[in-house]
Amino acid sequence: MLALLGDYTIQTVAMGAALLGISSGVLGCFAVLRKQSLLGDTLSHAALPGICIGFLIAGSRDIGTILAGALVTGAASALVVLLLTRMSRLKTDAALGIALSVSFAIGVVLLTHIQGGGNASQGGLDSFLFGQAAAILRGDLWIMGGVTLSALALVGLLWKEFKLVSFDPGFATSLGLPVVALEVAMTTMVALAVVVGLQMVGVVLMTAMIVAPAVAARQWTHSLGGMVTLAALFGTMAGVSGAVISATVRGLSTGPLIVLAISAIVLISLVLAPGRGLAWASLRRRRDRRRLAGRQVLSTLYGLAAEHGDQGYRAELGALDTFHGTPTRQTLQQLERRGLVAPVTHAPETTPHWELTKAGFAEARRIDDAPEGDDR
């Protein structure tokens, strides 16, 4: 493994994947919180015509010109979305869908035109669709790093404003903040994240890198700062692990492996995240069902005791089962472990009977006297 990590190409790909994870993780948080998860998909597809225009301007696969073109068309597409939502009755999802399909169609037309033009340097240009991590050079890392640092610096500079606009844009407007300008800035940052990942995972898969780290991080924390930090960490983990696995197993592309890695992190987060994970939700529902069943059995025993004027009234197990329409033995045993009921005999009957203890009678009376809806 150490020898593998010492390889120059693998180091380059891993560093590029780490930069991708950091930028997409941090910037994707704002898109997810603003309920614009489709924005990453729109901007990544809108980058394709920019890639083609950058190639046509440079006449070769100059990464700087290509990424600049992708940024320009991505930002232009985002501007179109903002104009459509603010100047028409279209909702955000409809505007995003229009921008995505139109821009990608333009990109495919331009790509077909380039491929039919006979320019020898256009070879491999279509790799931007699905990414080609192995083609990344150390010089490309400087561009990716510059874009990432610029985006992170902007986030740090406008942290409070971005936070307010993401959670309560109406209140931000009432404070006099330039909400439209801030939304444009946030959208441009997402476009920057897309540009960073184009060569690594490509146009088609880039949307996963915008959404997935933020979704995974949201499961583990309640604060924006924690979410942004975790999203950057998850994105980096997925990027580096995908690069290493791709280098270890021949024939596997880096981009799809990175997306699969972050998808695995999302799945683990959705299942195991404390408080929000599906496993915790299942345990909470089971605990609530047990608590409700215990309260119902206690109330039944209390009602029988009150009706017969005997605090130690002995209720027959079969009668309790019939009254509740379900077996109650397990619930009674749980209440017994809490010291609220006790098994007793009731001669000459041989069937199991149960009675409230002093603590159980007090608890049942508290439940009976509690206001309706109070489950304390």
UniProtKB/TrEMBL annotation:
<keyword id="KW-1133">Transmembrane helix</keyword>
<dbReference type="InterPro" id="IPR037294">
    <property type="entry name" value="ABC_BtuC-like"/>
</dbReference>
<feature type="transmembrane region" description="Helical">
    <location>
        <begin position="63"/>
        <end position="84"/>
    </location>
</feature>
<protein>
    <submittedName>
        <fullName>Metal ABC transporter permease</fullName>
    </submittedName>
</protein>
<feature type="transmembrane region" description="Helical">
    <location>
        <begin position="12"/>
        <end position="33"/>
    </location>
</feature>
<feature type="transmembrane region" description="Helical">
    <location>
        <begin position="257"/>
        <end position="281"/>
    </location>
</feature>
<feature type="transmembrane region" description="Helical">
    <location>
        <begin position="171"/>
        <end position="194"/>
    </location>
</feature>
<feature type="transmembrane region" description="Helical">
    <location>
        <begin position="38"/>
        <end position="57"/>
    </location>
</feature>
<keyword id="KW-0813">Transport</keyword>
<feature type="transmembrane region" description="Helical">
    <location>
        <begin position="135"/>
        <end position="159"/>
    </location>
</feature>
<feature type="transmembrane region" description="Helical">
    <location>
        <begin position="96"/>
        <end position="115"/>
    </location>
</feature>
<feature type="transmembrane region" description="Helical">
    <location>
        <begin position="200"/>
        <end position="217"/>
    </location>
</feature>
<comment type="similarity">
    <text>Belongs to the ABC-3 integral membrane protein family.</text>
</comment>
<dbReference type="InterPro" id="IPR001626">
    <property type="entry name" value="ABC_TroCD"/>
</dbReference>
<dbReference type="Pfam" id="PF00950">
    <property type="entry name" value="ABC-3"/>
</dbReference>
<keyword id="KW-0812">Transmembrane</keyword>
<keyword id="KW-0472">Membrane</keyword>
<feature type="transmembrane region" description="Helical">
    <location>
        <begin position="224"/>
        <end position="245"/>
    </location>
</feature>
<keyword id="KW-1003">Cell membrane</keyword>
